[in-house]
Amino acid sequence: MACFVVMLPLLLALVKAQVPHWGPCTEPATQPAFNLKQFMGRWFEIAKLPARFEKGRCIESNFTLKVDGTAQVVRTVIAEEPKNPAKLGIIFSHVLPYATYWILSTDYVNSALVYSCIDVLRLFHVDFAWILSRTRSLPASAITQAREVFTSNNIDVSHMVLSSHMCSLSRFTC
């Protein structure tokens, strides 16, 4: 009980700005025959479910493959299940726990759909989802199609927002 009392403020901070859902995380289908090496490189965030730990605009990630088979992206990404390499694990920050980072779909050259979920005692969960692109924009039809993929995997993207790419000259790297 004492552990729950200590954890409650942390959990409330976690879900602020996110949309919690009852029950455990969903288990969406991931990219078959995922190739981590092809996924490496620069990805721009096109749309996302709101995430308290991810603020700002012009958000991009640059994944690089390390010698030990992990990937570096401002934070470290590792293969969670060797039999299913599209199921990655990621540490978003020092405050948030290790989380899933699953590639639901990618063609490696245009776009990728990523899902993450934090399960809280199997009572409720918080979904995170991203539409990524190799360029700063995607056609509206591609965004609509991406949202349909999330929905078909029982991921509620009704709160998904488009990311701003109105970038100034001053850039910050984490």
TrEMBL record:
Belongs to the calycin superfamily. Lipocalin family. Gene3D superfamilies: 2.40.128.20. GO terms for biological process: lipid metabolic process; response to reactive oxygen species. It is found in: Secreted. Residues 1-17 form the signal peptide. One of its GO terms (molecular function) is lipid binding. One of its GO terms (cellular component) is cytoplasm. This is Apolipoprotein D. The keyword Magnesium does not apply. Its main location: secreted. Keywords: Disulfide bond, Glycoprotein, Lipid-binding, Pyrrolidone carboxylic acid, Secreted, Signal, Transport. Residues 63-161 form the Lipocalin/cytosolic fatty-acid binding domain. InterPro entries: Calycin (IPR012674), Lipocalin_ApoD (IPR022271), Lipocalin_CS (IPR022272), Lipocln_cytosolic_FA-bd_dom (IPR000566).
